[in-house]
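Figure 2 data, in text form.
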Amino acid sequence: MWQRSEQWRSNLDLLWQWFVYLVVGQLARFWSRDQRLWVFGARGGTAFADNAKYLYLWVAVNDPSIRPVWLSKNEIVVETLQQQGYEAYRAHSLRGRLLTLRAGVVFVTQGLRDVHMGSTAGARLVQLWHGLPLKTIAWDAEWSDQPWPVRRCHASMADEIDLVTAPSTEAIEPLSSGLGIDPDRFVVTGYPRTDVFANDIEGATLTADASLLDRIESQATDSKLVFYLPTYRAAGTSFIEAFDTAAVGDLLAARGAHLYIKAHPDEPVTAAESHSHVHWLPASVDPYLVVPHADVLVTDYSSVFFDYLAVDRPIVFFPYDQSTYTERRGFYFAYESVTPGPIATDADELQEALTEALDAATGGEDPYAADRRELRRRFCPVPPGTASQAVYDAVSRLVFADSEPPTRLADPRPAAMQPTVSDTFR
């Protein structure tokens, strides 16, 4: 009942903002937009996260001719960014709406409600999205079952998107199908969030728990770290029920390793067994601040594993509910064809897979190394550390095609001093 009520409220909000968007679209000819004012939002306006976050930070450092503004419904995010000298406002405040009405470019990672959707009419709209989809999304998942007005809204707004970023050409077909956006509007740039695998990103930790990050970085110097990022499940068996904390914790303790578990933001952990070698991260933690420290990644259907291919380290897959998840949600690719690591379907198999992966992480046999490299070539060919610039360049070509483009600052360090994938986090 609660979920249905929340869905109705969300649908009504969507339809109202669509109505405002249509009205603003009719009035937009009466004012001009500033092509050097770029506004950013993410995750429905709730967090400073994902591709929009890392592109925003990159633009703020690299191009003083562009005015980047972060918009959020989260007052803590806004205040924290402002205190550190970044420009940020509440998305639905008068100032936030006025800036959105004046912005030449709007960047989102979920949808236009990452900012104030109604005020984006007339701007260049860039969908950065939030991952190469293994599981079906949007039109191929839940949207087709929505009421007709909601479906009509989604279809109409998909037509408004000017540019969508993708990590590879192989990602365009599923993204186009799921989002309902013409493939011609896609550009292969890589995802800005993957730049963390190559570079220290100025400002990336602003809204993070500094003590938590320090602890993880300290442990990474002395121990092997495993990170488990399970996919959100609206129904079915929770990952907490399928995961044997005590058994995994004992295994890791014997190896001198530690496990960090980060639940999906929509599935926070409320009750979990404790262990000295198993640590539960807040659901709000930006995974891209911690995953670069992982020696082994554990997941099930999350797109994070595609990004993690950048560091070429062992991956363990734990799809304990694969048959029911496949029936309920479905995938764009045959699961076994795109999972370069051992597949564990229960708690006992997970322990075996973790043992194998930890052996590989400490210099032992790594039977999935070639598979990881092949998957990276197919799905994530853009080198980490270059994606933000690639997105910036693509947007600049779109926005400044008939005028003088902005002047971007080059990295002042000699090439030999610029970080690579292997030297920043190891």
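Caption note: The CA atoms of residues 165 and 348 lie 39 Å apart.
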